[in-house]
């Protein structure tokens, strides 16, 4: 399935996790007693992850994103029987995502107040993609066959 396309290759390209290193110095009491000291892993301040971060978004293919969008569309189609159900569900999910993703209370309210812009921009983008697709279909239909 496109969702799991080349996962082995993608994970092989990811940087490896940091490893614990043994200290060979005998500066600590446990090292002199035959127990090597272990250096702690360095952690990021807010994520709790390793300091060698990578952007996982870079490892997604267009096909994987399209497959996820298709699954989302299927979920809405099968669960929302009316426009009102759809609107209520989408609004609740979007607000939850906004609540989770904004770093501060001010950003939460600012993003919420400017949400109309985001919707208008996304509609323009989607309409442009639809228009582009129609132009390509028209051009292919008009192209003389050899």
UniProtKB/TrEMBL annotation:
Residues 1-49 are annotated as: Disordered. Residues 23-34 have a biased composition (Low complexity). This is Uncharacterized protein. It comes from Florenciella parvula. The lineage of its organism: Eukaryota, Sar, Stramenopiles, Ochrophyta, Dictyochophyceae.
């Amino acid at each position: 399935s496109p969702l799991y396309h080349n996962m082995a290759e993608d994970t092989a390209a990811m940087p490896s996790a940091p490893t614990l290193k043994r200290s060979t110095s005998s500066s600590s009491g446990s090292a002199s007693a035959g127990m090597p000291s272990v250096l702690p892993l360095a952690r990021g301040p807010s994520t709790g992850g390793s300091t060698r971060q990578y952007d996982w978004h870079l490892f997604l293919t267009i096909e994987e994103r399209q497959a996820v969008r298709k699954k989302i569309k299927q979920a809405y189609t099968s669960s929302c029987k009316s426009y009102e159900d759809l609107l209520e569900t989408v609004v609740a999910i979007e607000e939850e995502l906004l609540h989770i993703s904004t770093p501060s209370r001010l950003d939460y309210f600012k993003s919420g107040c400017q949400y109309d812009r985001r919707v208008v921009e996304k509609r323009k983008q989607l309409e442009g993609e639809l228009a582009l697709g129609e132009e390509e279909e028209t051009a292919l239909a008009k192209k003389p066959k050899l």
